[in-house]
Task: structure prediction
Amino acid sequence: MGATHSSSEEVRELEGKTGFSSDQIEQLHRRFKHLSGDQPTIRKENFNNIPDLELNPIRSKIVRAFFDNRNLRKGLSGLADEINFEDFLTIMSYFRPIDTTMDEERVQLCRKEKLRFLFHMYDSDSDGRITLEEYRNVVEELLSGNPHIEKESARSIADGAMMEAASVCMGRMEPDQVYEGITFDDFLKIWQGIDIETKMHVRFLNMETIALCH
Amino acid sequence: MDSAELAGKIVYTWLTLVLGFILLPSAFGVSLGISELYMKILVKTLEWATLRIEKGVSKESVLKSSASVGIIQRDESPMEKGLSGLRGRDFELSDVFYFSKKGLQAIVEDEVTQRFSSEELVSWNLLTRTNVNFQYISPKLTMVWVLGVIVRYCVLLPLRVTLAFIGISFLVIGTTLVGQLPESSLKNQLSELVHLTCCRICVRALSGTIHYHNKQYRPQKGGICVANHTSPIDVLILTTDGCYAMVGQVHGGLMGIIQRAMVKACPHVWFERSEMKDRHLVTKRLREHIADKKKLPILIFPEGTCINNTSVMMFKKGSFEIGGTIYPVAIKYNPQFGDAFWNSSKYNMVSYLLRMMTSWAIVCDVWYMPPMTREEGEDAVQFANRVKSAIAIQGGLTELPWDGGLKRAKVKDTFKEEQQKNYSKMIVGNGSLNLELD
Result:
């Protein structure tokens, strides 16, 4: 995209692909330029300047999610080196609220997309399963700041949670049956019937409805 | 008359006018009402311009609102509330939801970095530099804008530069002269007179209109005056209404000359760069200064850096450890007439001053507040936060717990660890485990 008031054709195309309005796209473009330092692409290092983000325990996973080829719909594994504005918007669109006026099928599709985004955050080696190791990794990251918690405790928490997931997905297991890991379908099963709406969306304001005070 | 004589006569008339209408009245603290008239005309013009823009815009039915409203509705719910609801056990996959949402909010819009760039205006004030969202409306408006440019650059700028020059020279010469006198109350009075006159001249040099509120709480001798920081002009604005002792680093160049001259007339506290690093030394010297009740109140800006006047950032606790009475002062600029914020990474001092002198005017409000002292059982950090809240409320600014040093540095690791500690406390409950294994 070129100048601030970029060609409306490109904007319309992005509107169609991602579902954001043209004003929102313009605002996000300004934010993109600010983060990238006026370059056309963003690299991982550009996310280092956001103080609010530094506080987040799973910061590295969030940043990684922006470059994950599966989220960018560019492949089944691996990380991109840099992303352009369209990719930026694609990732943002995972967090748009689900439009409940759509028909049931589309709502389910959106829900699935959001859950898939989260699944990718856990499944770091892109093998389609969340193994015990990967689960432990996430728990450790979340708890890493507390000096009172030893690695053992973090492991036990992960093990316990994994056991519960196994019981939900596999029912009763034979004594020597090994639970390989949570697949995406199992993941969906865990969340069946639970409303994840308020947890996984960011409400983007519709710019036109904000009026100037006279 | 040949051209040299003509030029000489013009300069002579110019200087006499300046002397008569501006310098003498400011020496006596008297106002001739010229600036008030100028401000009235300016306000009327800007109102007219705003109406024209709104009429023009509504024809195209596109309303671009100010960016300070923000693009997302932030979910500020605390961690406990955000994580509850879906959890049946101590740790759930859903906890990652909360943190990824928070992370995305931070990426889209963060509270801190937007404070280090100028505030965006709701309606255009006919300066090109604030023209971010507004397009061409009508020929009349463009003509007024062109007229504005001519007035600002050809009439106001030379006038202001002359005044600034005269003001600074007078300050340097005056304080050097006063510094020759022996210590006496006469010396103090004269030095006050010199300071006040020069500051008034410099304020006229920026077409400053300042409203002081609650003058009864003006800082007294032996106290510490604390204010929010937006630009180097803050100093000028405060010293126009009273004399203060400055605290700061010794600079070279023009600033150095001014500093050395000022310290001859009355005691300021200037530190060498190496001394600034030694916090105990700094605290000691400041304590000695306020212990002497005859010395002027110290002026300190605890934020440590310039913020864009929409919010107040973390107050560094160093100034609050010295003891003594703190006199808080809130300064709020009106951005419609000129943006006073100094973005030191974008502009150096000279271009900043030029921008100041080619704005319409600097309009601001100064509120003096009742003095505060540290209470029993309150440590320096809590006291600093208390003063910060008071200043933020008075000035109508938002309050942020972040450190202004983030302009240049990264978040300290201790901050990061705080958040993680909170989360892990929730799950594990301070060291004890509440797991139920099947």
